[in-house]
Amino acid sequence: LEALQPASAPTNLTEEEMLSELQTSMSYKVLEGNVGYLRVDNIPGQEVLNQLGAFLVTHVWKQLMGSSALVLDLRHCTGGHVSSIPYLISYLHPGGTVLHVDTIYNRPSNTTTELWTLPQVLGERYSADKDVVVLTSGHTRGVAEDIVYILKQMGRAIVVGERTEGGALDLQKLRIGHSDFFLTLPVSRSLGPLGGGSQTWEGSGVLPCVGTPEEEPLEKALAILTPRRALPKIIRRLQETLQDYYTLLSRVPTLLHLLATMDFSTVVSEEDLVAKLNADLQAVSEDPRLLVQALRPRENSPEPEPETDGAPGAAPMVPEDEAAQCALVESEFQVSVLQGNVGYLRFDRFADVSVLEML
Q1: What is the pLDDT of residue 68?
Q2: What is the DSSP letter of 302?
Q3: Is 297 contained in some domain?
Protein backbone atom coordinates (compact mmCIF):
# COMPACT_ATOMS: atom_id res chain seq x y z
CA LEU A 1 0.00 0.00 0.00
CA GLU A 2 1.20 3.48 -0.79
CA ALA A 3 1.35 6.17 1.87
CA LEU A 4 -1.90 7.58 3.17
CA GLN A 5 -2.68 11.05 1.84
CA PRO A 6 -5.26 13.52 3.24
CA ALA A 7 -8.38 13.82 1.11
CA SER A 8 -8.68 17.12 -0.74
CA ALA A 9 -10.34 19.87 1.33
CA PRO A 10 -13.13 22.03 -0.10
CA THR A 11 -12.22 25.46 -1.42
CA ASN A 12 -12.75 28.51 0.77
CA LEU A 13 -16.28 29.88 0.73
CA THR A 14 -17.21 33.47 0.08
CA GLU A 15 -19.01 35.48 2.77
CA GLU A 16 -22.31 35.11 0.91
CA GLU A 17 -21.85 31.34 0.70
CA MET A 18 -20.97 31.12 4.39
CA LEU A 19 -24.07 33.15 5.29
CA SER A 20 -26.28 30.93 3.14
CA GLU A 21 -24.84 27.78 4.70
CA LEU A 22 -25.25 29.25 8.18
CA GLN A 23 -28.91 30.06 7.60
CA THR A 24 -29.66 26.50 6.45
CA SER A 25 -27.91 24.91 9.47
CA MET A 26 -29.37 27.17 12.17
CA SER A 27 -32.89 28.26 13.16
CA TYR A 28 -34.52 29.89 16.17
CA LYS A 29 -37.89 30.91 17.61
CA VAL A 30 -39.50 31.87 20.89
CA LEU A 31 -41.91 29.21 22.13
CA GLU A 32 -44.96 29.52 24.36
CA GLY A 33 -44.02 30.46 27.90
CA ASN A 34 -41.22 32.73 26.63
CA VAL A 35 -38.83 29.81 26.09
CA GLY A 36 -36.12 30.46 23.53
CA TYR A 37 -35.41 27.67 21.04
CA LEU A 38 -32.17 27.45 19.02
CA ARG A 39 -31.51 24.56 16.65
CA VAL A 40 -27.97 24.06 15.33
CA ASP A 41 -27.26 21.28 12.82
CA ASN A 42 -23.68 22.27 12.00
CA ILE A 43 -21.35 24.26 14.24
CA PRO A 44 -19.34 26.78 12.20
CA GLY A 45 -15.63 27.31 12.75
CA GLN A 46 -13.87 30.33 14.19
CA GLU A 47 -13.21 31.79 10.72
CA VAL A 48 -16.94 31.91 9.96
CA LEU A 49 -17.74 33.25 13.41
CA ASN A 50 -15.17 36.02 13.07
CA GLN A 51 -16.76 37.18 9.83
CA LEU A 52 -20.42 36.62 10.66
CA GLY A 53 -20.40 36.94 14.46
CA ALA A 54 -22.00 40.40 14.41
CA PHE A 55 -24.77 39.10 12.11
CA LEU A 56 -25.48 36.16 14.45
CA VAL A 57 -25.61 38.38 17.52
CA THR A 58 -27.94 40.91 15.89
CA HIS A 59 -30.30 38.61 14.02
CA VAL A 60 -30.32 35.47 16.21
CA TRP A 61 -28.87 35.89 19.68
CA LYS A 62 -30.55 39.20 20.55
CA GLN A 63 -33.94 37.66 19.72
CA LEU A 64 -33.35 34.99 22.38
CA MET A 65 -31.86 37.15 25.13
CA GLY A 66 -35.27 38.16 26.48
CA SER A 67 -36.44 34.57 26.93
CA SER A 68 -36.87 33.12 30.42
CA ALA A 69 -35.13 29.82 29.47
CA LEU A 70 -33.25 28.43 26.49
CA VAL A 71 -33.55 25.12 24.64
CA LEU A 72 -30.46 24.29 22.53
CA ASP A 73 -31.38 21.58 20.02
CA LEU A 74 -28.35 19.51 18.93
CA ARG A 75 -30.27 16.38 17.97
CA HIS A 76 -29.25 16.68 14.33
CA CYS A 77 -25.80 18.24 14.84
CA THR A 78 -23.31 15.94 13.11
CA GLY A 79 -20.52 18.35 12.24
CA GLY A 80 -18.52 21.20 13.66
CA HIS A 81 -15.14 22.76 14.32
CA VAL A 82 -13.14 22.53 17.55
CA SER A 83 -12.32 26.25 17.31
CA SER A 84 -15.96 27.14 17.93
CA ILE A 85 -16.23 25.35 21.31
CA PRO A 86 -14.97 28.26 23.47
CA TYR A 87 -17.15 30.69 21.48
CA LEU A 88 -20.42 28.84 22.14
CA ILE A 89 -19.64 27.93 25.78
CA SER A 90 -18.70 31.56 26.55
CA TYR A 91 -22.21 32.83 25.80
CA LEU A 92 -23.58 30.49 28.48
CA HIS A 93 -20.80 31.15 31.02
CA PRO A 94 -20.95 34.16 33.38
CA GLY A 95 -18.66 37.09 32.58
CA GLY A 96 -15.85 38.24 34.84
CA THR A 97 -14.09 34.86 34.95
CA VAL A 98 -12.59 32.49 32.41
CA LEU A 99 -12.95 28.72 32.59
CA HIS A 100 -10.65 26.01 31.26
CA VAL A 101 -13.18 23.78 29.50
CA ASP A 102 -11.05 21.31 27.55
CA THR A 103 -7.60 20.31 26.33
CA ILE A 104 -7.36 18.94 22.79
CA TYR A 105 -4.58 16.61 21.62
CA ASN A 106 -3.90 16.53 17.87
CA ARG A 107 -2.01 13.47 16.65
CA PRO A 108 -0.66 14.68 13.24
CA SER A 109 1.00 17.73 14.84
CA ASN A 110 1.61 16.01 18.21
CA THR A 111 0.40 19.15 20.02
CA THR A 112 -2.09 19.95 22.75
CA THR A 113 -4.28 23.04 22.83
CA GLU A 114 -6.11 24.37 25.88
CA LEU A 115 -9.61 25.72 25.34
CA TRP A 116 -10.73 28.57 27.63
CA THR A 117 -13.90 30.61 27.66
CA LEU A 118 -13.54 34.07 26.16
CA PRO A 119 -13.05 37.03 28.51
CA GLN A 120 -15.22 39.17 26.21
CA VAL A 121 -17.95 38.35 23.69
CA LEU A 122 -19.95 40.28 21.12
CA GLY A 123 -23.31 41.27 22.56
CA GLU A 124 -24.47 39.83 25.89
CA ARG A 125 -24.08 36.50 27.67
CA TYR A 126 -27.14 34.47 28.57
CA SER A 127 -27.95 35.06 32.24
CA ALA A 128 -26.65 32.37 34.61
CA ASP A 129 -30.00 32.63 36.46
CA LYS A 130 -31.86 31.26 33.43
CA ASP A 131 -32.19 27.56 32.69
CA VAL A 132 -30.61 25.93 29.64
CA VAL A 133 -31.79 22.58 28.27
CA VAL A 134 -29.79 20.75 25.58
CA LEU A 135 -31.58 18.23 23.35
CA THR A 136 -29.59 15.24 22.10
CA SER A 137 -30.12 12.11 20.02
CA GLY A 138 -28.13 9.14 18.79
CA HIS A 139 -27.14 11.29 15.80
CA THR A 140 -25.45 13.99 17.92
CA ARG A 141 -21.72 13.56 17.39
CA GLY A 142 -18.26 15.10 17.34
CA VAL A 143 -17.85 18.69 18.49
CA ALA A 144 -21.53 18.81 19.47
CA GLU A 145 -20.92 15.93 21.91
CA ASP A 146 -18.02 17.80 23.48
CA ILE A 147 -20.19 20.89 23.93
CA VAL A 148 -22.95 18.79 25.53
CA TYR A 149 -20.43 17.11 27.83
CA ILE A 150 -18.87 20.42 28.90
CA LEU A 151 -22.23 22.08 29.63
CA LYS A 152 -23.37 19.03 31.61
CA GLN A 153 -20.16 18.87 33.67
CA MET A 154 -20.35 22.62 34.32
CA GLY A 155 -23.86 22.15 35.69
CA ARG A 156 -24.99 24.76 33.18
CA ALA A 157 -27.45 22.64 31.21
CA ILE A 158 -29.94 19.82 31.65
CA VAL A 159 -29.41 17.25 28.89
CA VAL A 160 -32.63 15.70 27.58
CA GLY A 161 -32.97 13.03 24.90
CA GLU A 162 -30.87 10.02 23.92
CA ARG A 163 -27.26 8.98 24.52
CA THR A 164 -25.11 10.72 21.91
CA GLU A 165 -23.31 8.74 19.22
CA GLY A 166 -19.94 8.49 20.97
CA GLY A 167 -17.93 9.50 17.92
CA ALA A 168 -14.65 11.38 17.73
CA LEU A 169 -13.82 15.03 18.21
CA ASP A 170 -12.08 15.33 14.86
CA LEU A 171 -12.14 12.79 12.02
CA GLN A 172 -9.86 12.89 9.00
CA LYS A 173 -10.49 11.09 5.73
CA LEU A 174 -7.30 9.72 4.17
CA ARG A 175 -6.91 8.33 0.65
CA ILE A 176 -4.96 5.07 0.40
CA GLY A 177 -2.34 5.88 -2.21
CA HIS A 178 -3.94 6.82 -5.54
CA SER A 179 -6.76 4.32 -5.19
CA ASP A 180 -10.46 4.90 -4.62
CA PHE A 181 -10.17 3.58 -1.07
CA PHE A 182 -10.29 5.88 1.94
CA LEU A 183 -9.62 5.42 5.64
CA THR A 184 -11.46 7.54 8.20
CA LEU A 185 -9.88 7.77 11.63
CA PRO A 186 -9.91 10.08 14.66
CA VAL A 187 -6.92 12.41 14.74
CA SER A 188 -7.82 14.56 17.78
CA ARG A 189 -9.15 13.71 21.21
CA SER A 190 -10.47 15.48 24.28
CA LEU A 191 -8.32 15.26 27.41
CA GLY A 192 -10.50 17.18 29.88
CA PRO A 193 -10.10 18.83 32.35
CA LEU A 194 -13.84 18.67 33.13
CA GLY A 195 -14.61 15.21 34.47
CA GLY A 196 -11.11 14.79 35.92
CA GLY A 197 -9.49 13.63 32.68
CA SER A 198 -10.31 9.95 33.33
CA GLN A 199 -13.78 10.18 31.87
CA THR A 200 -14.52 10.69 28.21
CA TRP A 201 -17.53 10.76 25.94
CA GLU A 202 -15.55 9.54 22.93
CA GLY A 203 -16.56 6.01 22.04
CA SER A 204 -19.32 5.85 24.65
CA GLY A 205 -21.34 9.05 24.14
CA VAL A 206 -22.89 11.47 26.62
CA LEU A 207 -25.70 10.17 28.80
CA PRO A 208 -28.70 12.51 29.12
CA CYS A 209 -29.94 13.71 32.50
CA VAL A 210 -33.44 12.75 31.35
CA GLY A 211 -33.75 9.99 28.77
CA THR A 212 -36.50 10.19 26.17
CA PRO A 213 -36.94 9.11 22.52
CA GLU A 214 -35.61 11.41 19.80
CA GLU A 215 -39.10 12.57 18.79
CA GLU A 216 -40.15 13.67 22.29
CA PRO A 217 -37.36 15.65 24.02
CA LEU A 218 -38.72 19.10 23.19
CA GLU A 219 -42.04 18.34 24.90
CA LYS A 220 -40.13 16.80 27.81
CA ALA A 221 -37.87 19.85 28.05
CA LEU A 222 -40.85 22.20 28.25
CA ALA A 223 -42.40 19.98 30.94
CA ILE A 224 -39.14 20.17 32.93
CA LEU A 225 -38.97 23.96 32.62
CA THR A 226 -42.50 24.45 34.01
CA PRO A 227 -41.71 23.57 37.67
CA ARG A 228 -38.25 25.15 37.39
CA ARG A 229 -39.81 28.50 36.45
CA ALA A 230 -41.68 28.39 39.75
CA LEU A 231 -38.50 27.76 41.79
CA PRO A 232 -37.79 31.41 42.82
CA LYS A 233 -41.35 31.85 44.10
CA ILE A 234 -41.30 28.50 45.92
CA ILE A 235 -37.98 29.26 47.63
CA ARG A 236 -39.17 32.73 48.64
CA ARG A 237 -42.36 31.31 50.17
CA LEU A 238 -40.38 28.64 52.03
CA GLN A 239 -38.07 31.27 53.49
CA GLU A 240 -41.02 33.40 54.60
CA THR A 241 -42.76 30.40 56.17
CA LEU A 242 -39.65 29.34 58.09
CA GLN A 243 -39.16 32.88 59.38
CA ASP A 244 -42.78 33.23 60.53
CA TYR A 245 -43.64 29.78 61.86
CA TYR A 246 -40.68 27.49 62.53
CA THR A 247 -40.29 26.98 66.30
CA LEU A 248 -36.56 26.12 66.34
CA LEU A 249 -35.52 29.76 66.01
CA SER A 250 -31.78 29.13 66.33
CA ARG A 251 -31.78 27.03 63.16
CA VAL A 252 -33.73 29.45 60.98
CA PRO A 253 -30.71 31.52 59.76
CA THR A 254 -28.89 28.35 58.67
CA LEU A 255 -31.97 27.08 56.84
CA LEU A 256 -32.47 30.43 55.09
CA HIS A 257 -28.83 30.42 53.96
CA LEU A 258 -29.22 26.85 52.69
CA LEU A 259 -32.25 27.77 50.60
CA ALA A 260 -30.45 30.80 49.17
CA THR A 261 -27.39 28.80 48.10
CA MET A 262 -28.92 25.43 47.21
CA ASP A 263 -27.98 23.96 43.82
CA PHE A 264 -31.07 22.96 41.86
CA SER A 265 -29.28 22.09 38.60
CA THR A 266 -30.29 18.41 38.84
CA VAL A 267 -33.96 19.07 39.60
CA VAL A 268 -36.08 18.02 36.62
CA SER A 269 -39.48 17.37 38.23
CA GLU A 270 -41.67 18.20 41.22
CA GLU A 271 -40.71 14.87 42.77
CA ASP A 272 -37.00 15.73 42.47
CA LEU A 273 -37.60 19.14 44.05
CA VAL A 274 -39.55 17.74 47.00
CA ALA A 275 -36.98 14.99 47.62
CA LYS A 276 -34.05 17.42 47.51
CA LEU A 277 -35.71 20.00 49.76
CA ASN A 278 -36.64 17.39 52.36
CA ALA A 279 -33.22 15.72 52.34
CA ASP A 280 -31.27 18.98 52.65
CA LEU A 281 -33.60 20.80 55.07
CA GLN A 282 -33.86 17.82 57.41
CA ALA A 283 -30.11 17.21 57.31
CA VAL A 284 -29.32 20.82 58.25
CA SER A 285 -32.09 21.23 60.83
CA GLU A 286 -31.73 17.68 62.24
CA ASP A 287 -35.51 17.77 62.41
CA PRO A 288 -37.40 14.95 60.62
CA ARG A 289 -40.68 16.78 61.25
CA LEU A 290 -39.67 19.53 58.81
CA LEU A 291 -41.42 18.29 55.71
CA VAL A 292 -42.17 19.72 52.25
CA GLN A 293 -45.03 18.25 50.22
CA ALA A 294 -46.43 18.94 46.76
CA LEU A 295 -50.21 19.16 46.80
CA ARG A 296 -51.96 18.77 43.45
CA PRO A 297 -55.67 19.58 42.97
CA ARG A 298 -57.70 16.70 41.60
CA GLU A 299 -58.82 17.17 38.02
CA ASN A 300 -62.54 17.67 37.43
CA SER A 301 -63.27 17.36 41.13
CA PRO A 302 -65.86 19.62 42.77
CA GLU A 303 -64.70 22.32 45.12
CA PRO A 304 -64.56 20.97 48.68
CA GLU A 305 -67.31 22.20 50.92
CA PRO A 306 -66.12 24.38 53.79
CA GLU A 307 -65.75 22.55 57.07
CA THR A 308 -67.83 23.98 59.86
CA ASP A 309 -66.96 21.67 62.75
CA GLY A 310 -63.69 23.37 63.53
CA ALA A 311 -64.46 26.83 62.17
CA PRO A 312 -64.17 29.62 64.73
CA GLY A 313 -67.55 30.53 66.17
CA ALA A 314 -69.35 27.62 64.49
CA ALA A 315 -71.63 25.45 66.65
CA PRO A 316 -70.55 21.79 66.82
CA MET A 317 -72.80 19.48 64.83
CA VAL A 318 -74.01 17.11 67.58
CA PRO A 319 -77.32 15.27 67.02
CA GLU A 320 -79.97 15.62 69.72
CA ASP A 321 -81.25 12.04 69.34
CA GLU A 322 -79.62 9.68 71.87
CA ALA A 323 -79.28 6.82 69.39
CA ALA A 324 -77.56 9.12 66.92
CA GLN A 325 -75.28 10.39 69.68
CA CYS A 326 -74.31 6.78 70.51
CA ALA A 327 -73.56 6.13 66.85
CA LEU A 328 -71.37 9.26 66.75
CA VAL A 329 -69.43 8.13 69.83
CA GLU A 330 -68.95 4.65 68.37
CA SER A 331 -67.60 6.15 65.16
CA GLU A 332 -65.00 8.13 67.09
CA PHE A 333 -64.06 5.74 69.89
CA GLN A 334 -63.39 2.00 70.10
CA VAL A 335 -63.92 0.56 73.61
CA SER A 336 -63.49 -3.01 74.76
CA VAL A 337 -62.23 -5.12 77.67
CA LEU A 338 -59.50 -7.52 76.64
CA GLN A 339 -58.51 -10.85 78.15
CA GLY A 340 -57.15 -10.43 81.65
CA ASN A 341 -59.58 -7.59 82.39
CA VAL A 342 -57.45 -5.07 80.42
CA GLY A 343 -59.36 -2.03 79.22
CA TYR A 344 -58.76 -0.90 75.64
CA LEU A 345 -59.62 2.60 74.34
CA ARG A 346 -58.76 3.79 70.84
CA PHE A 347 -59.45 7.14 69.21
CA ASP A 348 -57.78 8.46 66.09
CA ARG A 349 -58.27 12.18 66.62
CA PHE A 350 -58.92 14.62 69.43
CA ALA A 351 -62.50 15.84 69.32
CA ASP A 352 -63.38 19.46 69.98
CA VAL A 353 -63.84 20.12 73.70
CA SER A 354 -67.32 21.56 73.15
CA VAL A 355 -68.38 18.32 71.43
CA LEU A 356 -67.06 16.26 74.33
CA GLU A 357 -68.96 18.44 76.82
CA MET A 358 -72.26 17.97 74.95
CA LEU A 359 -71.71 14.20 74.71
Answers
A1: 93
A2: P
A3: no
Residue-wise pLDDT for 64-74, tens only, equals 999 999 999 99
- Domain total of the chain: 3
Answer whether 0.85 is exceeded by the pTM.
no
Answer for the pair 39, 133: CB distance below 8 angstroms, yes or no: no
Q: Are 15 and 22 in contact (CB under 8 A)?
A: no
Cα first-last separation, the chain: 105
CA dihedral 304, 306, 307, 313 (to 10 degrees): 170
| Count of beta carbons in the 10 Å neighbourhood of residue 80 | 26
What is the tens place of the pLDDT at every residue in 309-348? 444 445 456 777 788 888 888 888 899 999 999 999 998 8
> Burial letters for 35-49: b for 16+ Cβ neighbours within 10 Å, e otherwise?
bbbbbbbbbbeeebb
Strand order in the sheet with 4-6: 4-6, 170-176, 182-193, 100-106, 111-116
What is the domain extent for residue 343?
Answer: 322-357
The SS3 call for residue 79 is strand
Q: What is the CATH number of the domain that holds 243?
A: 3.30.750.44
Looking at the fold, whether 247 and 188 belong to one and the same domain comes out as no
Beta bridge mates, 131 = 69
The residue out of 257, 285, 313 marking a domain boundary is 285
Host H or E run for residue 146: helix 143-154
For all residues of the chain together, what is the average pLDDT? 85
* Cα–Cα distance for residue pair 41/25, rounded to 1 Å: 5
Give the C-alpha separation, 185 to 187, whole Å: 6
Please determine, for residue 303, whether its predicted confidence score (pLDDT) is greater than 70. no
Please report, as a single letter, which amino acid is at residue 282: Q
Same domain, 52 and 194: yes
Enumerate the H helices of 155-309 as residue ranges.
Answer: 217-229, 231-245, 252-261, 270-285
Report how far residue 38's alpha carbon sits from residue 6's, in angstroms, rounded to the nearest whole number. 34
HSE-CB of 96 using CA atoms within 13 angstroms: 3
Using the predicted structure, report yes or no on whether residue 6 has a pLDDT greater than 70.
Answer: no
pLDDT at 216: 84
In a domain, 7, yes or no: no
